[in-house]
Amino acid sequence: MTDATPPPAPRPTSVKAVRNGPLQVKGTFRLLDPDGEEYDLTGQRIVLLCRCGRSANQPFCDSSHKRTQWSSQDQPTACEDADGGAA
């Protein structure tokens, strides 16, 4: 018999576009770099991903959007699938 603590149950994943800021990702997910290598997010409960493109710590937000007064034009719309039609 072992006293190992069972891993926590996976949490649903949510992605929120923060107004004039980053994408806030919560839950259980994997984040891969362009080569398919997984970022080590051990212990991270919330990850903020850069949307302005100015972060020195890509793909993560470093608040550059605030210094440069970047603004988003977030409006909910239908997503298109890979063939160009509505999903």
TrEMBL record:
GO terms for cellular component: cytoplasm. InterPro entries: FeS-contain_CDGSH-typ, MitoNEET_CISD. Residues 37-71 form the Iron-binding zinc finger CDGSH type domain. Keywords: 2Fe-2S, Iron, Iron-sulfur, Metal-binding. The keyword Iron applies. GO terms for molecular function: 2 iron, 2 sulfur cluster binding; metal ion binding. Residues 59-87 are annotated as: Disordered. Pfam families: zf-CDGSH. The keyword Magnesium does not apply. This is CDGSH iron-sulfur domain-containing protein.
